[in-house]
Amino acid sequence: MKKNLFKLYLLLLIFIPIVLLLLPSDFFDKGHSICLSVFLFDFECYACGLTRAIQHLIHFDFFIAYHFNKLSLIVFPLIVFSYFNECKRAYLLLK
User: Fold this and answer.
1) Averaged over 34-55, what is the pLDDT?
2) Does 43 map to a domain?
3) Is the Cα dihedral 20, 25, 27, 28 positive or negative?
4) Domain contains 80
5) d(CA 50, CA 75)
6) 48-90 pLDDT per residue, tens
7) Is residue 90 within 8 Å of 6, Cβ to Cβ?
8) 34-51: string of b/e by CB count within 10 Å (b at 16+)?
9) At 35, is the secondary structure helix, strand, or coil?
10) Number of domains composing the chain
């Protein structure tokens, strides 16, 4: 039973980047911000625009990503590194 859950988890880990690659780069650009700091204090935090910026980085739109969030160029490699470590961990738990 536990092995089946790890298989499902690994499939989900593999499926998420594929979906993000298939979505258009401007998929998250529409709509209002749902950040609490913007909603409550009318102030943008350091993470505001990070989802949109990462989506543009996935599609190699570096200038637009930098426009949405300047820290995305630092955060994206950390996310990729963490993602591959998690995939490796999940694969090793299947053995």
Assistant:
1) 88
2) no
3) positive
4) yes
5) 9
6) 889 999 999 999 999 999 999 999 999 999 999 999 999 999 8
7) yes
8) ebeeeeeeeeeeeebbbb
9) coil
10) 1
Give domain status of residue 41, yes or no.
no
Per-residue tokens: 93 = 């738990």
The reply to whether 79 falls in a domain is: yes
Confidence (pTM) = 0.84
> Would you call 23 helix, strand, or coil by DSSP?
coil
Strands (E), the chain: none
* CB of 21 closer than 8 Å to CB of 54: no
Q: Higher confidence at residue 3 or residue 72?
A: 72
Give CA–CA dist 4/94, Å, rounded. Answer: 9
